[in-house]
Write a structure and sequence with these properties.
Blueprint: H1 2-13, H2 17-35, H3 41-65, H4 67-72, H5 88-109, H6 112-133, H7 140-144, H8 150-160, H9 165-188, H10 190-196, H11 201-227, H12 236-258, H13 265-290
This protein binds protoporphyrin IX containing FE and farnesyl diphosphate.
Length: 291
């Protein structure tokens, strides 16, 4: 018992808590847009808890599988497994336990579709992204990034019992957002990935190709985010905000394209902006769906 208490921060860390906040936030926004306000308190809490348990469990399984490469990268070598704070077996059991608990919560207090979608999201992240694509292809995060786009589908189904078109558009928004989000960071972390032998885009195709593709995804993101307006779920306020922040995202990726490959000032700014862009866009989905 004493050991578990001492290891609690390590268990918390393997759930990738900071990324979870964004996943839960996009789920909550989808629930509020679907309901046009605050949905039933019990369903909201259960859906948030279910996703937190499942994505936390999936992140733990990702940490379990990636413990060899995490030990080789500067950014990840202080994580609980490379540091030896907890054992691989403990993390493996913890991951499966969280995902199982999530299934119970969602089946009992939400609905079967939400439980199945959440399990699919975890499977996508752990098996398709982590175990299959991450070490094989520079398209790893394009295809695998779809895992992180599940929360709006999960939130929408928790409230309505089905997958609506607006939720599919929200899924597509996160899908298009992921490449410029990650590649801007990968540009200035590429030596880390090269050392660990991970075929991230800048390592395999170089900085220029990565930057060019980021611009293309940022343009697709602007177009995808605008689509929500045409589902009559949100007002024109959303269209104005989505276009403004979307154009700004394109500007950031273009400035990154034109900066020298020795300095990554704009790449760092683009990464920071990506973390500001997504919550802002989702907040305006709620605001403009309620007015
Ligand atoms: C395959 C897709 C993705 C990859 C490879 C990826 C990778 C990363 C990396 C390497 C960081 C930096 C962490 C650090 O500096 O230690 C990061 C930060 C972050 N990512 Fe992503 N990400 C992906 C998708 C997502 C998605 C879908 C979300 C949520 C919607 C998300 C939310 C965040 C947040 C909130 C942070 C900042 C918190 C932090 O630095 O720990 N990411 N991401
Ligand atoms: C149930 C459900 C929707 C689960 C989603 C799980 C999840 C945590 C998705 C986010 C995607 C993500 C943060 C990838 C990080 O990639 P990485 O593992 O390559 O990053 P790292 O190098 O920091 O470990």
């Amino acid at each position: 018992m004493h050991k578990i208490y001492r290891s609690a921060p390590a268990y918390y860390e393997v759930t990738k808590p900071r990324i979870q906040i964004m996943l839960l936030f996009t789920e909550l926004c989808a629930m509020m847009v679907a309901h046009k306000g605050l949905p039933d308190f019990r369903v909201t809490c259960a859906a948030l808890l279910g996703l937190a348990l499942s994505s936390g469990g999936a992140a733990a399984l990702n940490m379990w599988y990636d413990r060899d490469i995490d030990a080789q990268m500067e950014r990840t070598q202080k994580r609980p497994l490379p540091s030896g704070l907890i054992t691989p077996l403990e993390v493996l059991v913890f991951g499966f336990l969280l995902i199982s608990l999530s299934q119970i919560v969602l089946f009992v207090w939400v609905n079967p579709l939400t439980a199945v979608l959440t399990l699919l999201g975890a499977f996508y992240y752990v098996v398709i992204y982590t175990m299959w694509l991450k070490r094989k292809t520079p398209q790893n995060i394009v295809i695998g990034g779809g895992a992180g786009a599940f929360p709006p589908l999960i939130g929408w189904s928790a409230v309505t019992g089905q997958i609506g078109l607006p939720a599919i558009i929200m899924f597509a928004v996160i899908f298009m957002w992921t490449p410029p989000h990650f590649w801007s960071l990968a540009l200035y972390r590429s030596s880390d990935y090269a050392r660990a032998g991970i075929p991230m885009m800048p390592v395999v195709h170089g900085a220029r190709a990565t930057k060019r593709q980021s611009v293309l995804y940022a343009i697709c993101l602007l177009l995808t985010s605008s689509l929500l307006y045409f589902t009559h779920t949100v007002s024109s306020l959303y269209l104005i905000i989505a276009s403004s922040v979307g154009i700004l995202f394109i500007v950031f990726t273009v400035l990154t394209l034109f900066e020298a490959d020795t300095t990554y000032v704009w790449a760092r700014r683009t990464f920071a902006y990506s973390l500001f862009y997504l919550p802002l866009l989702f907040i305006f989905m709620i605001v403009s769906s309620a007015i």
